[in-house]
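ugh ok so i messed up the first submission bc i forgot one of the chains. this is the corrected input, ALL of the components this time, i swear. 425 residues overall. if the numbers dont match what u have on ur side tell me asap before i send this to the collaborators (the ones from the other lab, u know who)
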Amino acid sequence: MRVVHYLNQFFAGVGGEERADTPPTSRPGAVGPGLALQRLLGEDGEIVGTVLCGDGLVGDRPDAVVPDIVVLIEALAPDVVIAGPAFNAGRYGLGCARVCAAVSARLGIPALAAMAPDNAAVELHRREIVIVPTTATAIGMPDALAAMARLARRLGRGEPLGPAAVEGYVPRGRRMNAWAPASASARALALLEARLRGEPFTTEVPLPRYDRVAPPPPVADPARMRLALVTECGLVPAGNPDRLEWVRASKWLRYGLGGVDDLARGDYEVAHGGYDAAFGVEDPDRLLPVDAVRELARRGEIGEVLDAYYVTCGNHGVLGQMATHAREIAADLRRQHVDSVLLVAT
Amino acid sequence: MAKELERSGFPTATVTSLAAVAVKVGANRIVCGDRFSHPCGRPGLPPAEERAWRVELVRTALRALATHVDGPTVFELRS
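and heres the new structure output, hopefully the right one now
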């Protein structure tokens, strides 16, 4: 089995940050941590060459540099490519991940990288490549190399890998068919029993984990704040003049509320394929409480209301896309000197 | 969206019929609205009462905006 190892300038012994512009270079045999990796591979594999590149170069111009690295790797005709370990190094991690992704996609050669689970490259590339989790610093080098050698042996022989939790790599988010010893209902009951008995159990359907946002301080006095209305309910002027999509909206829109005291029936329609729009069409204030907000502004309970509202459609909203809409809306709110937001979610 | 608006520094009161979901995903200032097809409406009520209810809903949102919270917090209408 022919193995090619990818390293940055530091682990290849070329130099530190002052040599971060080292161009892609190929060296025969194993270098640096590759020497230990070679011992672990033993008779099963030979590191026929080491390809290295400066972190700065691969970090700044990956699109230009990664293809050159792939050419050097291809010339060594490997059965498997190993990159890193990069631990928690950001640019090195990205370099390893990009090289592995390109080797797999362009050469069809299996590749694996190793780095700390919170290295930024993991979230970006874990779906397309095999990543061995490591400690944040080089203190975990021996364990990392052992895991890399074990998986490289499997990949180099063309063996398919089993589930991430069993094989010891970062989950790629893939679902693979497999024969289970019992039906789903029996497995579900077994899980429930284990939980009730206080025994350890592993769910078959991990739920997504959401990050937390530190709440900004409250407004000191609503009677002196400038409030804006934002919604993902898809409420748009009749005729949907800007063609807001009913599903997976690609945009957000801002519509004026100058002189509008109450959203009138017939002036608006709903571009949202996820709920029954009849109630909102009958009285749009049921979706966006303009009449109530105006009344409280007249009573002095709200300082001021922005004479416009922001709208997109949340139906089948992709998390990242919705977050981008919200960030762009926030930038506009800042330009409008808004203090706080009333967001209506359908 | 609530989280990104708050991340950008705007206190944000989210009116939703699905408070439990909002808590789960991490919205911080959550106001319990009516059904998901009309979070700010109560179609069963006579128009004047529905509007009075909506004013109270917005007052609840104002209370949420003016309240210090440490994480997902649900605000209900005072009845």
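quick check: The mean pLDDT of chain A is 94. that seems consistent at least. Chain A has two domains: 2-167, 222-344.
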